[in-house]
Amino acid sequence: MHRLPPLSRRDVLIAGGALGAAAAFLPRPSLAATPAADGVRRFALKPMPATVPLVGNGHPDTSVWGYNGSVPGPEIRALQGETIEIAVENGLEQATTVHWHGIRLPNAMDGVPHVTQDPIAPGGRFTYRFALPDAGTYWYHPHLGSSEQLGRGLSGALIVEEREPVRVDREMVWLLDDWRLGRDAQIVGGFGDMHDRTHDGRIGNTVTLNGRLTEQLPVRAGERLRLRLVNVANARLFALEFQGHQPQVVALDGHPVTPHAPKDGQIVLGPGMRADIILDMQGRPGEQFQVVDRFYRQMHYRFVDLAYSDEAPLRDSPLNASIRLPANTVPAPDLANAVIHRVHFGGGMMSQMASARMDGRTVGLREMFQHGLAWTVNGEAVSGHLHDPLFRLKQGQSCRMVLENDTAWFHPIHLHGHAFRVIARNGQPVADDAFLDTVLLAPRETAEIAFLADNPGMWMLHCHVLEHQEGGMMGLFEVG
């Protein structure tokens, strides 16, 4: 297993010593604000250029873009039911917005340029304010120039704590990311590359945990951990296997699920997806266990080691306390009376698609590529965020959406403003109590999702492989 797996011939590995780097697991900066007299928690974010010790071990610091100058950005925490206000000042030389991924918030606060707000110009300001209806693990990131802005480091965690949390000894948030770095530890350019757009996106050669190349994570025998896992990468999918341990999944995309062991022992996360797990540390003092990423065939690698301290065990047997999280407030859809809409995703390399509609006319693939487009939604290749909606729903109407992946690639499809249930895959019913905002579609797979359209506005539906989104795999639906 290689610490820095090369994923294409064009990727350049960090030279020599990085393979043996042993970065400390550093705490993330936090913006845990005390509520003001009006009960609102207030925060300030500034996306800006910065330098950070991404690789460490004697390598130069990496020039990045970070919120408040850090990678990842400051962790924002609040309680379920509270209202937060985030004043954003744009310190970049290009326009930006901030999207609050997974939060069921008012449409005007969704951060989609030209759809819900004007872009925040360089030096400009915008204040987001919204209530937090659901506890869980969420995150924030730009929604303008997303491939480059996320690829240079702009992301951060938004944690909404339960009023009655489960009992654990420690909680950690893991932001999983990857970077395409050169031998000088600097980010390689080429954002918008058509090879990335037409294949599996911009996959990097250096994987980080909370913005650092991390070799070991110190743990103590007998303790119970709650890990909040967030995939903030542009395109990389993860399948984490906790060797020697038995993780229990307690939430997906922020929302509680019936606690269960992950399928095949692997926690699979596409870009934008999250999982909360409970991990009882049942190793012995001084032992080490690997956390391995096994998603890509023949590219398995050690993500991090769980390194047990020499301290005496905190307890001799697992903590005797429930790990089931309290339910959120997401309304269930009415399947019997739901309207049905089909959304067909096409394009990309190895596609059988010969043409598509673009700007109201039929064009061939070559002309699409010349305009930076490679993917279609319902036969349409679109650029930018603002265009005619795929369909319209009445507020309060239930919807069954059939998502057809007619491509050779994986697509994590993200729905804004709502949470849904997956009710079928490839025509077979799914017995699952999970509410999600992102569903991972395998090549040639069809999934049916269902949700109650209770949040009015114009909402995005798109692939969260950011190069696929910018290459045309996005659409809008309207609720009103």
Automatic annotation (TrEMBL):
Q: Which CDD domains match?
A: CuRO_1_CumA_like, CuRO_2_CumA_like
Cellular component aspect of the GO annotation: outer membrane-bounded periplasmic space
Give the InterPro entries listed for this entry: Cu-oxidase-like_N, Cu-oxidase_2nd, Cu-oxidase_C, Cu-oxidase_fam, Cu_oxidase_CS, Cu_oxidase_Cu_BS, Cupredoxin, TAT_signal
| Ranges for domain Plastocyanin-like | 58-164, 199-292, 383-479
The record, for SUPFAM superfamilies, names: Cupredoxins
Query: Tell me, what is one Gene Ontology molecular-function annotation carried by this entry?
Result: oxidoreductase activity
The reply on keyword Metal-binding is: yes
Which keywords are on file for this protein? Metal-binding, Oxidoreductase, Signal
Give the protein's recorded name.
Answer: Multicopper oxidase
Phylogenetic placement of the source organism: Bacteria, Pseudomonadati, Pseudomonadota, Alphaproteobacteria, Rhodospirillales
